[in-house]
Amino acid sequence: MKIKMKIKMKTYSCREAATTWAALLLLLIAISGCDRLLEEDPRSLITPTEFFQEPGDAQAAVDAIYTHLRGSGVYGQYYWLMGALASDEGMVNGFHPEMAELSAFTLTPHNPVVAQVWSELYAAIHTANFAITRLPEAPVSEAEATRLVAEARFMRALFYFDLVRMFGEVPLSREANTDGAQVSLLPRAPIDSLYKQIEADFTFATEVLPQKGAAGRPGALAAVAYLAKVALAQKAYNRAFQLNRFVIQSNQYALVADYADLFKVANNHSAEILFAVNFGPGDQAPLNTRTLPGTLTGASPWGLPTDALAAAFDPQDRRLQVSLLTAGQQRYVAKFWDATAEPAAGPTSNDLPLLRYADVLLTHAEAINGLRNGSNSEALAAINAVRKRARFDGTQELNILPNLGSMNFADFQAAILEERLRELAWEGHRWFDLVRMGKLEEKVLAAKPGSPVSAKHRMFPIPQREIDLNPNLTQNGGY
Fold it and tell me: How far is 285 from 72, CA to CA, in rounded Å?
């Protein structure tokens, strides 16, 4: 018997997260297969040391990590909203003070959204640490245990990669601690140490996982592509170039012919997707309810596209037709609405792609630009492939978005940044892109004149609650 549970998300401190993740995991396992849930004696719940008794427990330990991936605390909701609102592509709508702080660049350390993102990422890391540490004890083959560890390490690397890009130096926990006090007192680790751990985890995944993962699961090539993004974040351009080239030359991924097909429920697992947050009928995401007009969803959207985003597109660009919807005098984000499969436009079963092949191509062009101080034929081929796809209107290739020619570093960087805006709009990349390329203040001021955006907004504040609980934490500058 399968029991589906919906768990209301709340904000946890690191101290609470260290124990809550374990309690939740153990509760889920304890009730699976139970026909008399209401008669269970709470004292009968298994402890961490008793957990791995059956072969299925090993897979369950890794599956528990994905509850955080799909949860509303980060990727299910705030990841892509933060990336849009804290940049030039989105602005807040309606009365949402916590989101308005992001959009207006009046963010404080008391912001509940930032606090929830922090605590949910650490809850996910603690769940991954539990699996990584305890899987060798599981009654499965050594090969199976190693594969599951590789999957858990991929996930841990992903969570730390987002943490370090959002907050800078953060506590580094690699142990399956159930002692919340010990976890909550960790100091902020140096950036180099964090990236070293991220690289080690992704590298392990490249060595163990199959080339391509199943739906919603990572494969070795996804880990290679993430290593390229990690290298790019550190301006290690040659390494990023080599890693991206490896993914491209594997010929395992390709651009979907029509951009409009990318965001259809039936194509969640297309040849373009390296890794995505996998939603389903019992785990639907608010991608549409947060962005579409209330006349469709019955609820006011939290965020709207900026005029700057709309102006970035050629009027005939296929991506404009897919990404934005105009109703009355207002534009809305419609990218994830499959009107045929889900005409009601409510919570969607559409996946949230975290890594697409188009992203790999544009990252490759950026790495080459940094390495060669300008474009070359390989870099131009990568970005022009993305532009070529955008010329296709579903029937024919239009006479728009001509192929780019040779450019110097500054011009090519600007072209890549704008192509990423059009291609990846509202998928959670924009804030990261602007920070990485040093363009946050410039682009935000152009889109939101008079905004108090400044250099401090290249990182989010450490949640004040965490600092209050952990005297070893310090605040980011300016907050």
Answer: 8
